[in-house]
Amino acid sequence: MTSTTGNTPAAPATAAETPAVAAAREDLAALRRQQAFAAADEAALDGLIAVRPPERRPRPDPVWDDAPVLVHEVVGERYRRLVLATDTIATTALAGQFLMITVPPAEGERILLPRPMAIHRRHPEQGTVEVIYGVAGRGTTALADVAVGESLLVTGPLGRGFEFPDAAEPDAALPTAAHPRPARTALMIGRGVGVCAIMGSVEDAARLGIAATVVLSGRSRANLIGPADCAELGARVIPVTDDDGSSALPALGGRLRGLFGSAPPDVILVCGAGVLARLAAELGAEWGVPVQVSLEAHMACGLGYCHGCAAPVATDPAVEGPLVCVDGPVFDAVLPGG
Amino acid sequence: MTSTTGNTPAAPATAAETPAVAAAREDLAALRRQQAFAAADEAALDGLIAVRPPERRPRPDPVWDDAPVLVHEVVGERYRRLVLATDTIATTALAGQFLMITVPPAEGERILLPRPMAIHRRHPEQGTVEVIYGVAGRGTTALADVAVGESLLVTGPLGRGFEFPDAAEPDAALPTAAHPRPARTALMIGRGVGVCAIMGSVEDAARLGIAATVVLSGRSRANLIGPADCAELGARVIPVTDDDGSSALPALGGRLRGLFGSAPPDVILVCGAGVLARLAAELGAEWGVPVQVSLEAHMACGLGYCHGCAAPVATDPAVEGPLVCVDGPVFDAVLPGG
Amino acid sequence: MTIAPPRPTTDARRAFFDARPADSAAVDLSVRIGSLTLANPVMPASGCFGPSLGRLIPVAELGAVVTKTVFGTPRGGNAAHRLTEIRAGMVNSVGIPSRGAAGYLASQHPLYLALGVPVIVSVGGHRPGEYAPVVQGLRGAGDAYELNVSCPNLDRHGTDIGSDPDAIGTVVRLVRQETDKPLIVKLPVLVSSIADCAQAAEAAGADAVCVANSIPALPLTADTRSPVLGNVIGGLSGPNIRPIVLRLVWLAARAVDIPVIACGGIETADDALDYFSVGARAVQVGTASFGRPFAMVDITRALQERCLAAGAADIGELIELWRA
Amino acid sequence: MTIAPPRPTTDARRAFFDARPADSAAVDLSVRIGSLTLANPVMPASGCFGPSLGRLIPVAELGAVVTKTVFGTPRGGNAAHRLTEIRAGMVNSVGIPSRGAAGYLASQHPLYLALGVPVIVSVGGHRPGEYAPVVQGLRGAGDAYELNVSCPNLDRHGTDIGSDPDAIGTVVRLVRQETDKPLIVKLPVLVSSIADCAQAAEAAGADAVCVANSIPALPLTADTRSPVLGNVIGGLSGPNIRPIVLRLVWLAARAVDIPVIACGGIETADDALDYFSVGARAVQVGTASFGRPFAMVDITRALQERCLAAGAADIGELIELWRA
Ligand SMILES: Cc1cc2nc3c(=O)[nH]c(=O)nc-3n(C[C@H](O)[C@H](O)[C@H](O)COP(=O)(O)OP(=O)(O)OC[C@H]3O[C@@H](n4cnc5c(N)ncnc54)[C@H](O)[C@@H]3O)c2cc1C
Ligand SMILES: Cc1cc2nc3c(=O)[nH]c(=O)nc-3n(C[C@H](O)[C@H](O)[C@H](O)COP(=O)(O)OP(=O)(O)OC[C@H]3O[C@@H](n4cnc5c(N)ncnc54)[C@H](O)[C@@H]3O)c2cc1C
Ligand SMILES: Cc1cc2nc3c(=O)[nH]c(=O)nc-3n(C[C@H](O)[C@H](O)[C@H](O)COP(=O)(O)O)c2cc1C
Ligand SMILES: Cc1cc2nc3c(=O)[nH]c(=O)nc-3n(C[C@H](O)[C@H](O)[C@H](O)COP(=O)(O)O)c2cc1C
Ligand code: FES
Ligand code: FES
User: Fold this and answer.
1) Which PANTHER family does this UniProt record tie to the protein (chains C, D) (predicted)?
2) pLDDT tens for residues B236-248?
3) Which residues of D are annotated as a binding site?
4) Whether C212 contacts C264, CB under 8 Å
5) Structural domain contains residue C2
């Protein structure tokens, strides 16, 4: 394959351009924007991710369950909400943990790998959990076909979630670098379905009396996940969206600096975009507060044995790096050299 | 794998037999019956099949078409009827020709090969054809999901159909072995969906003033295909079913010998079971009348180029035998040595 | 009996013929296979085409046609069933019935010639020495030869000729002595090193390699777990083999300078572009034609339209555009 | 902060553990691999199991467990993405991260031992001579060794060791000098002759062959047609490879007297029985465990129930019954 164009962009439109040609040009432009976005998001995580220090309390044992689907409804324009009856998981899951959801076979469509999904809400009294997901590809398309009343095979709770500094032992010790002071205020930043990963911490904050400020980011107001949950949980919400420009990084960074500059939160939790993780890490460095970020990776087992979910952490090539499913999905986000 | 049972049948039931064991035994017995039936049906065709002499008139050119589904309904307990709008095919198809129906992709189920289906009825005035099919495996299961208003990709008309002796040139010549006398009466025998292959000839008989007697065979009255079509076309119907024993070969043979012994039909057309083809060939030999049988084979192209549909005709191993899709599906059925 | 006067009828096939796009001077889809230039890089896979398809699709819009494999002497085919479809794909064990070179020349070649595009004759053998006599027997008929070496080598207890680089070299060298026409070697999937096989073909004088044939498989019935196919083993084809063959094409294209023709599970222009993006220079369509006889022509037309729309002069440029 | 008193909770996993069927003296599912007798013929495929699964399924009901492949020295894994799912199946290129024999002994083996079933340690290398030192380094740990020869042979420009019968023989002979324990050779799919490979393993002293590893494939993204996997190439696994591997198992079982362990796309007892019916003596389950962690135990239980229900004393008899 030889080419004479090399890296030059598509030729500019001419007067004689047909609608098909115009459409193809727009497709190409959209592809370029998407490529640029993905590249920026990946680059933003570069050098930022570190494995969190060992947990002080053991994680709950994961189980698998046949979880009846109690609710399966469209949320906003782009998402779907599942309420699953799964008693043990609802009772034991920690904030920021996730499930592996096996997509049932239907009409010959066979989905082999379970899909990782954050536990958006836990309702231990009812023995239910909520999951909110976007239809992305084959697996989530097939998942969207599951009817209320059917059961989903789920495995969980999995992974290491978000942890408030010393929340587990609120009156343990005086704050040090390794043991920062117990959180009294927290800033959570979620974008898109990434909001789901942080909602468990909003629940915890409500339970623990931590004042939570939650940035909910999305394409438009109609597509924000979590406003109702935050209202129910008594968290302050800062909605930011692409359509009015409020989600843009400089705008959001300025706003947060304005809000918290004089009284920084005790911890920042973030999920949903690499660039937001970097912003959070920058704010954390400025304010001297820890930042935790929840990451995604392609997964097969969710249990640490398939070695499929390498975290974006540079390590000695002879040593395996951390795994998102067991060492994460929540990691520390620390500015390189910071 | 060693075995101590060899060819002995499953051990007889004991008093301590659990329901699961009893069910498994019944499954095994059903499998054996089915195996025996399939073996008998295949053996019945042994040496029976011969390629018909060359056609006197060219076949219609096949086309492919996007045929809107006008009707798609359940027929009896086991079958489904499709009415397809496909003008050229409806206008040109000859009796006993077939279609290749491409099963559209749905929900990720991808059916690669089109499925051969007889043209049950032609309605050239409306530009429609009817197909009746049974749900057998993956392809027909997916086909059953197609909704009225969708279109099916069909290719046809294909293959060589049934021909009444000299019907094409009714006043051509005096009857000889090669040119039997023009048909005035015809016996058609169809079983299950095999009825569909012969219904075009029932249509032709009505048009040509040939007196048609049609044996419709099936498991039960509710499962017979064709009684209404035959009534519309003015054909005499002999319904025979498994549940009252009337479809059993000796019973049916006796009945037909009784009906036709003194005045045999001019031709016998048969489709739907190897053992019925052999019965027809026996009757044909007794009565000195030609017998034509329509066969099935796994097919990919339907056009004679994939060589996938070998007909059950023994030939020199260095020479390719006839193909069901172009040399058939209708063949002569002649008793070996007869 | 009255014969109704024919009335004009309509069907989608007719509309498809009529929709032939104008050739655009702005797009060059042509591809060279040795001394032969094809107007575009789309052709059928051997065994998945016959002249009778000319009644259903505008074959003249293809880059070439490829015949079913021709053997030296007549052969019958395998016992029924010769093909089936399972979830993994289509499986066939037709057994390559053949009328031999003489039979092909007499009854088939005139029909292929009438199609008006280059004819690539597929040639088979069961020993490395059997290919050259077939080509000789074809007496110059055909514009190029595709050497189907995915055949058990009876000289080596049935291992495929095409899995043995030495045997591939022997086949090509012997055939080269019979003809100056372009030679394409069609390789099997189950080989230890596709690079070695492709290089053996190139070194012996082949003008292209075709990667690949179907993948040997054993389909069983669900009830008694007996083989579905009369021949027990058949070749798996269709979209599920595509990721396997994509890797082979990628490796072969890195190993040789001659063009690689991709074959395996291509159904759409997107599938073809997948192969082009890993280095293929032409594509063959097999199984897809059974369900959608117009699939090949669709691909040819779509390749032209995509290049036009993107302002690319050829497929190479189109691929560069995504990667920019 | 008040901590709610734990209340009893329920889940399907618990019910599954409780449903353990009674062993029946009437059915013998045991299978011998050299000197080792497994209680039943069902085990995980290497890389698709870890001790952490013991929390989710009653591992004691399996015939054995198989470790992820252990290399001699520590290795990291491949760049992300390391796995994906496409229509054809799962594709992984984990890159076999390994802590080396010493690391395995220290951190992994105790967890495997605690599972209470025979432990088959999978061993890898990138040169035929690299396997024996790993086995030596394992210092007798493990009940048997599975030699994963589906690794590029760095001595022969990257062709898989397992595609070369001579290299297979070398690996087995060298390892045999280190251990008397049963040796299983796990063969790749892309080989010129699976029979030659299996016979090479048998002749060199292997006690079983495992057929087969995943099939190398190249998944591309839909938009820019770039490789999905960090390593470009990955191994295709899952149900669509079953018909391909069934043929290989059939050929291998006819070629050797040692047991053939089937591996490829097994999800259910029916799939396992397909393999048994073409000559396999044991089965490994890989991809299926990700979606249904209990798949292996389900298969073990179903095999026992089917034999019981059909009045068959073992799987061989069960198969004979259908064919009767
Ligand atoms: C810990 C964790 C929590 C998650 N929580 C949520 C959530 O709450 N809501 C939600 O909508 N999504 C969530 N995701 C992402 C979700 O798993 C993917 O959107 C989903 O797997 C896409 O599957 P697909 O078959 O539709 O897409 P395809 O692109 O067809 O998937 C192909 C393969 O890639 C994998 N894959 C593709 N995209 C992703 C991704 N972003 N993350 C992980 N694997 C991916 C799939 O699992 C599959 O194996 C989470 C991911 C992780 C790792
Ligand atoms: C000329 C002809 C006319 C036919 N007419 C009718 C009809 O009018 N009504 C009807 O119900 N059936 C008819 N059949 C049979 C029908 O084609 C099969 O039932 C159908 O192909 C089964 O497909 P499946 O995917 O449901 O079954 P599967 O068993 O899943 O099919 C697997 C493969 O085997 C092939 N196959 C399986 N059974 C048959 C069979 N009996 N004949 C041909 N191929 C088979 C399929 O096409 C497919 O390639 C006809 C067959 C032929 C050859
Ligand atoms: C019915 C059938 C017959 C085939 N006959 C031949 C043949 O004669 N010679 C040959 O080289 N390949 C033959 N093939 C293989 C195809 O040419 C092609 O390599 C294979 O089917 C993979 O391509 P696909 O997935 O597009 O079908 C045949 C394939 C099928 C399905
Ligand atoms: C995530 C993953 C990791 C694997 N790792 C190994 C490995 O370390 N060693 C090995 O011999 N095979 C490995 N395999 C191959 C499997 O053992 C098995 O041979 C293959 O997946 C086919 O079986 P399946 O279709 O049941 O998955 C791995 C497969 C997967 C999916
Ligand atoms: S998903 Fe398997 S190790 Fe993380
Ligand atoms: S179906 Fe292709 S030759 Fe008959």
Assistant:
1) DIHYDROOROTATE DEHYDROGENASE (FUMARATE), DIHYDROOROTATE DEHYDROGENASE (QUINONE), MITOCHONDRIAL-RELATED
2) 999 999 999 999 9
3) 46, 68-69, 92-96, 148, 186, 213-214, 238, 264-265, 286-287
4) yes
5) no
